[in-house]
Amino acid sequence: MAEAIFKKEEDSFTCPVCLDLLKDPVTIPCGHNFCMRCIEGCWDQEDQRGVYSCPLCKRTFTPRPTVYKNHLIAEMVETFMKTRIQASSITPSNAGPGDVECDVCTGRKLRAVKSCLDCLLSYCETHFKAHNDVNPGRKHSVIDATGQLQERICSHHKKVFEIFCRTDQSCICYLCTMDKHKGHDTVSAAAERTDKQRQLGPTQRRFQQRIQEREKELQELRKAVKTLKSSAQTAVEDSERIFTEMIRSIERRRSEVKELIRDQEKAEVSRAEGLLKRLEQEIAELKRRDAELEQLSHTEDHIHFLKVTVDDGLLVHRMFEGTDLC
After folding, report:
1. How far is CA 1 from CA 7, 8, 14, 176, in A?
2. Which of 82, 119, 210, 281 is deepest in the core (most CB within 10 A)?
3. What per-residue confidence (pLDDT) applies to 321?
4. Residue ranges of the domains in the chain?
5. Residue among 75, 38, 68 at smallest CA distance from 54
């Protein structure tokens, strides 16, 4: 029952020209509704005759009617789409940074998953399902979601690029072949893609060959760097060993020199101390003899004085002969 209601409403909101849901709907004088782009495209082809007709009932109009967006119908189409979305069980996903936003969502924008080149709209999962339900069996060109849909349509004719002009090396729509690019060498975009893909084959092979060469050079360079690091590490270890041995040898020699100096110091100090001891003894003896002489000089016994001075003079002479002071 619900599907039947949806089908009836869908037929009411379908453009008789593109057979899709009405987009920017307009109502012409005969009362029929069309997408603004569709009806103006039809009437553009009738400009030469100056008589404009309804594609559905064939009623004619002169002059060309001016059409405006029917906001009531647009709101009804939007309500139908929202109802269709609410009936869907697919869980939506919010659009994040870098994602393409769904063109049909109102308010919170969901992440688009597909873009339709016929509708020139990007759809989230829910709206894409609704798009397919509304267009059963109709062949629309659908690609992964892209935010560059406007770059795929002709700015002059508002038609999708389907042709490639080899003369001007640019993408054009089929209406461009009738005016600005009339008489030019044109082919379908798919045919030009195939041709350029074939031309890119040798270039791609050269790139692959160059990549293999560079990868080989990279491996050799990495190997050389590894060898260099290994050699440097060996040199460092050798230098560490040599310097360690030198330091040990210097430490050993330092200990030997230190020990030799201490031995020489000990011998010299011992000799000097012996000499000091002998000098102290000699000084003490001389002081004792000097005191005796001083005492003798005051005696009044001349015989005693002479006898002692003779005996002491010989003794003093012998004492000085055994020293460096003599």
Report:
1. 10, 11, 20, 47
2. 119
3. 56
4. 1-87, 192-321
5. 38
